[in-house]
Design goal:
The complex is a heterodimer of chains A (about 260) and B (about 800). Chain A is an alpha/beta fold. Chain A is built from 10 helices and 11 strands. The radius of gyration of chain A is 19 Å and the shape is globular. In chain B, the strands form 10 sheets. Chain B has a 7-stranded mixed β-sheet with strand order 23-24-22-21-26-29-30, with helices on both faces. In chain B, strands 8-13-16-1-17 form a 5-stranded parallel β-sheet. A 3-stranded antiparallel β-sheet of chain B has the order 3-2-7, covered by helices on one side. The radius of gyration of chain B is 47 Å and the shape is elongated. The chains are: A alpha/beta (about 260), B alpha/beta (about 800). The interface of A and B includes residues 59, 60, 80, 139 and 221 of A. β3 of chain A pairs antiparallel with β5 of chain B.
Chain lengths: ~260, ~800
């Protein structure tokens, strides 16, 4: 059965370094769907603990080399990062016309996202620019937390190919909720909708490569601005986002069941 | 004394011999192309055309109304048709140094084809290259490169993470970097818990972290290298991809210009540049494809365009004949335009504009010398360009310091042009005197004649010339009588009854006006009456001042007698020219004499109203008196001469004979006839010499006499040498024919004074004395009397000074 999805809020987990295009994308989506925006800046408590260890050092890739991780300086760096994130958020929220909230939380990003997001939310996750960031504990746990939640996840690649174009739904079948969501987005954006149905194959290795080829072949010369698809248990959405260099909105396949499941727990 | 006979009517006006004109109207005549009566100039022009050596450019001089440009242009155009069509020239971008655009020479008619071909090439590539880069093949290969790089990074970091995880260590993100932390269940171990660990475990953890830190650093340091490798791979892929699309198109374009090595060389550079800058053709701002093009060039594809500077239509043959009427520096040697880009003036090779030198290259360039000299830098640039034999476009605003923006230094273009300068004689002579380079760069002089001999053949020729003007200007044909009057007017314009003017502009004006009057009376062929009406109307329009001058004389505001006789007073004649219209008027000249130190005073000179030539004329009078009279006594005369009621400058010596008559009259105390007017200069021997404007002078006195009523005794004394110049107005000629007015040719002062006084001038007899009663005798006696008075005066003065008597 086709479901109608109604989003209310975008939750922006603001990492220490948020690329401008991700912020811009959040604003565009909020404007199109009339969504509130909730910016979360998480001051990792665990980092302060680490800084208390005598041997703790941090590596600055851009020429800084290694230097001791000290509590005082860490606090200072976190404050700088917070101010920067708040400023960027304020710029984005300006003239948006919807409710915008910036919140600073102490704890971990994963726990915060898990606790704050739910049905009707879109959690924006920015794919890291480097593989080094990808293997950090924070990113992995944040993605896991977002994927476990009932919220939809907007996966934003490190670089976006275009900000205009059609909306694409990659659907497993006619009743896939991605179609309705993509349709609503296309209507709001006053653009066309392209539905790619019956795309099979998920998983890893050869299977993932097969999915990639299918997507590339199916989309051909389509110039899409956003892809909507339902969640799978693999890294296909991340891979497609990277391949097409467009954001991928990942929806819950069976919302009511999951909500019930979550409520039961 | 033999009375002097006035000139007969046929000596006053030479009519055209229309019986020898073998046509009814000019419509029957073959128009005359080129020049007439200008053999000297024509030969010079032909010589200049024929000689190919440097510096043999042409300087054409002559009267302003001769329409020299038109005549020379016709000759040059005829010569140009037999010469080869010059090359086309284009400017293209210099891919090695964009500030120095490259000039390329192409056979006539090929420049536009080259420009079109390049434009088409770029258009095709703008369509083909994006398709190529969006192809599945390219995307797959590009994806493979990215994936390889990401995999390499990913594998290294994954291995690190796994190795860390195996030792209960995690990698965490700090605000500005990365850190390694001891972990339990993927969470950083809190410090209190870590400190609670046994020391050995803590030490092990610390060592493990230190080892992993080194590995992390090693991996991170490898990333730039991997990134470079990835970029190189992508660049290589892009080049290969672009080359595949570009090569075919380039080869097709080259095939069309395979005979032109410089074009081929340029196309090869275009090929290399497109491959290096394929980003401009594919996705704007895709940093993986390269840097976007230079904004200074404007549109990124502009750099591949061709600026056609000079092109010749392949269908027309012959060399160009270019006339530049506004020879500013830019119009002469070309200029570089600028456009404003974000408040900054920028330029590029496409903004180079051709000058007249470029357009005339291989042919002839016609310039008005006065215009060239009036424009800043143009004269210098013209000479420099001729000397160097190449056209170098220079930015005048940089000379003046008006702009400090970066400009271009386009390739120079070899110059092979024959420059033809036009100006009046005075300017040429001044220029030649003050600028020695004139003779270096303009070795051939064509000096246009003002007039030609009035022979039947030349009258026929001028008739054809009139037919040519009528045809060219779209005028009605002129009948034979009308042509006759135009020929007579041509003689009047030449100021000579035996010459015909060559001032085509003045003839054209008369013809045009006659045509207008013919149209006014709806005549299909212009008649003599129309020409006469045109001539009269021209005089009428211009004669307001003449009429006012005559009015003042008739109202006796300006005192001029036309009857009776007076001692020491005579009617001289002068000519005024205002706005191209000349008219004559009588002027009263008077003289007073008394004993003195032998000086003739020119009052005009004393008050600085007399010009040098006029003063010279008066001084000649002293010489005449000294040479003719009282040779045995010192000259003891004081005489003053004045142009009465003259309030402006007087120049010329044409009144010197009149002044001498007045002086002689005053000395001889014999009255002069006031019904006669006099013109002519005189030398120290008493010979009367020719003057200018004789027709206007006669007509000026005639008009006054006629207005007061012709008496039959009135007339004008003119130098005999001026008889040939007479082309008088019809009413003057008629009055003379009827004996109501007379023109007397005078060769000597003796003839003139005899006519003016009615007394014989007298010649010295065997005794050396002039005959008793003659004018000369009276004068000599008066001068002796003056000398005696002066001598007696000197003695009386000595006696009056007793101190000096010892």
């Amino acid at each position: 059965m086709t479901q109608t999805v109604e989003f209310r809020r975008i939750v922006l987990g603001l990492p220490y370094r948020m690329p401008p295009h991700a912020m811009q994308l959040a604003a565009e989506l909020a404007r199109l769907l009339r969504l509130d925006v909730h910016g979360l800046f998480v001051e990792e408590e665990s980092l302060r603990g680490l800084a208390a260890l005598p041997f703790a050092r941090e590596f600055h890739p851009l020429g800084g080399g290694w230097r001791p991780l000290e509590v005082e300086r860490l606090s200072h760096d976190l404050e700088i990062a917070r101010r920067k994130a708040e400023k960027a958020f304020a710029e984005t929220a300006k003239n948006l016309g919807t409710a915008c909230k910036f919140e600073v939380v102490r704890g971990s990003m994963a726990e915060t996202l898990a606790s704050i997001s739910g049905m009707g939310d879109i959690v924006l996750i920015t794919e890291p620019e480097t593989e080094a960031e990808r293997i950090t504990a924070q990113f992995r746990s944040a993605v896991e937390a977002a994927m476990r939640s009932l919220a939809a996840v907007l996966l934003v690649p490190p670089r976006i190919a275009r900000h205009s174009g059609v909306i694409v739904a990659i659907a497993r079948g006619g009743g896939d909720p991605s179609i309705e969501v993509a349709k609503a987005l296309a209507r709001a954006a006053n653009t066309d909708l392209v539905v790619v149905e019956g795309l099979a194959g998920t998983g890893e290795g050869a299977e993932r490569a097969s999915t990639t080829r299918q997507v590339a072949s199916a989309l051909g010369k389509v110039h899409e601005r956003l892809i909507v698809m339902t969640r799978s248990e693999d890294s296909a959405p991340s891979f497609i986002a990277s391949l097409r260099r467009v954001p991928v909105l990942i929806l819950e396949p069976e919302r009511e069941d999951r909500e019930g499941e979550r409520g039961a727990n | 004394m033999t009375p002097l006979r006035p000139l007969t009517a046929d000596q006053l006006y030479r009519p055209a011999d229309i019986a020898k004109l073998s046509f009814k109207s000019t419509a029957e005549l073959q128009p005359l192309d080129g020049m007439i009566g200008q053999k000297r100039a024509e030969d010079a022009i032909k010589f200049a055309i024929g000689i190919e050596k440097p510096g043999f450019n042409l300087f054409v001089i002559g009267p302003p109304d001769a329409r020299m440009q038109e005549a020379v242009k016709a000759v040059l155009e005829s010569a140009a048709r037999a010469r080869p069509t010059p090359s086309d020239w284009v400017y293209v971008n210099n891919f090695d140094n964009k500030d120095k655009p490259v000039a390329i020479e192409l056979p006539a008619g090929r420049a536009r084809k080259f420009a079109d071909a390049m434009h088409e090439l770029i258009d095709d590539l703008r369509a083909a290259l994006p398709a190529m880069f969006q192809s599945e093949d390219y995307q797959t290969r590009r994806g493979a490169i990215d994936e390889t790089f990401q995999r390499k990074q990913g594998e290294a970091f994954s291995a690190l993470r796994e190795k860390a995880a195996a030792q209960s260590i995690i990698i965490v993100r700090t605000p500005f970097g990365f850190a390694l932390a001891p972990a339990e269940n993927d969470q950083v171990v809190p410090p209190e818990q870590f400190h609670a660990w046994p020391e050995e475990k803590r030490k092990q953890m610390q060592d493990a972290i230190q080892a992993l830190e080194r590995e992390l650093e090693h991996i991170v340091r490898q990333i730039p290298q991997w990134e470079r490798e990835r970029r190189d791979e992508i660049r290589k892929l892009n080049r290969e991809t672009a080359k595949f699309a570009v090569d075919q198109q380039i080869e097709e374009t080259k095939a069309e210009f395979s005979d032109l090595p410089k074009v081929i060389e340029h196309i090869e550079k275009v090929r290399a540049d497109i491959i290096e800058n394929v980003a401009a053709f594919v996705v704007k701002g895709d940093e993986e494809l390269g840097e976007p093009s230079d904004e200074k060039q404007g549109n990124p594809f502009d750099r591949y365009e061709v600026n056609v500077l000079v092109e010749w239509d392949g269908r027309t043959s012959g060399a160009p004949v270019v006339e530049e009427l506004h020879p500013t520096l830019g119009n002469l040697i070309g200029h570089i335009d600028y456009v404003s880009l974000r408040g900054v003036l920028v330029t590029n090779f496409r903004l180079i504009k051709a000058g007249a030198m470029h357009r005339a290259n291989g042919g002839y360039l016609l310039l008005d010398a006065r215009s060239v000299l009036s424009e800043p830098f143009s004269w210098t640039a013209l000479k420099r360009t001729i000397r160097q034999g190449e056209i170098k476009i220079e930015d005048v605003s940089r000379f003046l310091g008006l702009t400090s923006t970066v400009s271009l230094e386009p390739d120079t273009i070899p110059l092979k042009v024959k420059v033809v300068l036009f100006c009046d004689r005075l300017l040429y002579f001044l220029l030649a005197a003050f600028d020695p380079e004139v003779s270096q760069h303009f070795k051939v002089l064509a000096d246009f004649e003002n007039d030609l001999e009035r022979t039947p053949t030349n009258e026929e020729l001028l008739a054809r010339f009139i037919a040519s003007i009528a045809k060219r200007e779209g005028l009605r044909p002129f009948d034979r009588e009308a042509v006759g009057l135009v020929l007579e007017h041509a003689a009047r314009l030449a100021d000579h009854s035996s010459k015909l003017t060559l001032l085509a502009e003045k003839l054209r004006d008369v013809l045009t006006e006659a045509d207008f009057w013919a149209a006014d009376v709806k005549r299909s062929v212009v008649s003599r009456a129309d020409v006469q009406r045109a001539l009269d109307a021209r005089v009428e329009r211009a004669s307001r001042i003449r009429d006012r001058v005559q009015e003042t004389i008739l109202q006796e505001v300006a005192l001029i007698d036309t009857t009776g006789s007076k001692v020491g007073q005579i009617n001289g004649l002068s000519v005024s020219e205002l706005g191209g219209f000349a008219f004559g008027r009588p002027t009263r000249i008077t003289c007073q004499v008394r004993p003195g130190a032998g000086r003739v005073v020119d009052i005009e000179r004393e008050v600085e109203l007399g010009g040098p030539i006029h003063s010279k004329g008066v001084l000649i009078l002293s010489g005449f008196l000294a040479g003719r009279y009282a040779l045995d006594v010192p000259m003891s005369l004081y005489a003053s001469l004045v142009f009465e009621q003259s309030y402006s400058g007087v120049e010329g010596d044409s009144a010197s004979s009149a002044e001498l008559y007045a002086l002689m009259s005053a000395l001889a105390e014999v009255p002069l006839r006031q019904d006669l007017a006099v013109t002519g200069s005189v030398n120290q021997h008493g010979e009367v010499q020719a003057i200018g404007g004789v027709n206007e002078k006669i007509e000026g006195f005639f008009d006054i006499c006629k207005a007061r009523g012709l008496t039959g005794s009135q007339g004008v004394l003119i130098p005999t040498a001026n008889v040939q110049h007479l082309m008088l107005r019809r009413d003057v000629v008629d009055a003379c024919a009827e004996g109501k007015f007379a023109i007397y040719p005078i060769s000597t002062i003796n003839e003139g004074i005899a006519l003016l006084t009615g007394l014989e001038a007298g010649t010295r007899g065997a005794d050396g004395a002039y005959p008793e009663g003659s004018i000369n005798r009276r004068i000599e006696d008066r001068l002796r009397a003056f000398a005696n008075i002066r001598r007696n005066f000197g003695r009386a003065s000595e006696q009056a000074l007793p101190g000096e008597q010892t």
